[in-house]
Amino acid sequence: MCLLRAERCTSPERGLLRFLRPHFGRRLACALDVRHRRDAPEATPVLELSDAAAAAEGLYLHPRWPWRCGDYALILARRRWPRVAHFWLVEPDVHFGFATAREAFALLDESDADLVAHRFGPAGRDWRWHASMAPHAKTVHACFFPLVRVSARLIDAVAARRRAMARLGPDPDLWPNDEAVVATAAGEAGWKVDGLAARLGPDAVALSFVWRGERVHRLSRLQAQPPDGRLYHPAYGDAEYFRHIHALLREQEVPASATPPTAATPDIVMPRRLA
Question: Does residue 39 have a pLDDT over 50?
Answer without folding.
Answer: yes
